[in-house]
Design goal:
The chain has one helix and twelve strands. It has a single domain, classed as YopX-like domains (SH3 type barrels). It has a six-stranded antiparallel sheet, with no helix packed on it. A three-stranded antiparallel sheet has the order 8-7-12, with no helix packed on it.
Length: about 130
Amino acid sequence: MTKKRTIKFRAWDKEDKRMIENTFVNYGQCYDFYEAEDDNGHLCWYGGLEENWIPLQFTGLKDKNGIEIYEGDIVAYLGKGEEVVEFDNGSFMVGLDGELPALLSSQIKCGCEIIGNIYENNELLKK
């Protein structure tokens, strides 16, 4: 039996400079959504298109502290410095800017830890 991966997103709001949790992405576009009951007591989803949001997908993995890892997160592992989590060729990777990119899942076993993200903590990345 295959384990199913949780598919969820958060988004960076370029205008308000803040992270938005629980976003919905359809065809690469972000939607704000929330759950509520309609007049008949049925559970419904409400929301609208947010064109100034950048979608960031959950990797399905957690760091050594149990924190969910998303695209755009900055992680530290094995004393190799800071790397950005990116999606490339069907896999979540770290170190794509360097000489030896690695699958993110292999770094989890090595004590990967989220230290920030590229939108709120860009200063963490070495120039």
